[in-house]
Amino acid sequence: MASAALVVSGCAVFEKKSGAWNDPFEQVKVAQTVGNNVSRAPLQRTILCLNARRETRIFTGETNVVVTYHTNQVVSYTTNYSINSVTNLQANLSTNQLVPVAPPLPVDTNDPTALVVQAPPPQGLSTNTSLTRSADQYLTVNTGRDQSVTTLNLQSSVTHNHQLTATFGNLAVTVATNQTIRSETIISITAVTNYVVTAKTNVTISPVKRVVHDHFLYTELTPPPDFTPAPGENLILLLDGQRYGLTPTNSPAFQGRREFVSTLYRVTPEILVHLANAREARLRLRGVTYAIERDISRSCQEKIRQFLVRYYPSTATLEELRSLASERRPDGTQP
Fold it and tell me: Taking Cα atoms as reference points, which of 187, 198, 163 lies closest to residue 73?
């Protein structure tokens, strides 16, 4: 009975009232419940409390980032000029032997038949010259995404044919000269377009005051000697069959009581509302070797509901931070 009396007396001493106060070091207003025991059992070896907490701070800066893009179009031209000239010269020498003329037959002077006299082959010099000229032009344009190529092809051809024939009696000598000059000019113009996009970022900081709320649940536990909280999601809420897994977090303005091991969990306002209004609420505190499970009592839910009604108005203004002088800490001291 002595140990049981100590446990009951310890619960009575540990019980604190909820409240709100201002933390001037962290520039934050804190509102929370304290000592909200999960179980209504009068005798407990392991005390487990589940409390709601809200931190309100003023956000005094708002950053506006403006990114502008500037496009610079650069067109580069490259000209390739190529000239090819080819000369072909051919000379031919040919000799032709003409058939000799037969001597005339003897003719009787008294023969009335006319006498046909064959003349000897002519002798002399003949020349034949021809000149042929041709020209072709080709224009090709190829266009791509950022590049265009224009090619101009000019071709010209000149053919000079000269032939000289000399006849000496029965001998004909021919000299033929063929000269071909071909010229090809290729002009290639390449245009390359480069787009340079420059991004300029302007950061504007406007001095805007805005109220920001952070919502938490935190546990207060008198753990058994062999209980070590498990890493990760070690607090699990089961509210009307819906599971919420919570991971421990930190806040510079949070300080637990010396008599308990306190752990802070970040939640959303919807979880707090669901916890306060759930018909069936249970929790599990996972440890490395075993877990602590509790049914959340109606009195625990009622304290969280009263906390929500008092500290969660429909709109938050800066006046709640200016009226902190009249607020007191949960232990009754003036902030």
Answer: 198
pLDDT in tens, 219-261: 999 988 899 999 999 999 999 999 999 999 999 999 988 889 9
Entry pTM: 0.51
User: How far is the C-alpha of 47 from the C-alpha of 43, rounded, in Å?
Assistant: 9
CB neighbours (10 Å) of residue 183? Answer: 15
Residues 98-153 have pLDDT tens digits of 656 556 666 566 656 555 555 566 667 788 888 888 888 888 888 877 788 888 88
Contact 120, 103 (CB under 8 A): no
Residue pair 210/318 in contact by the 8 Å Cβ criterion:
no
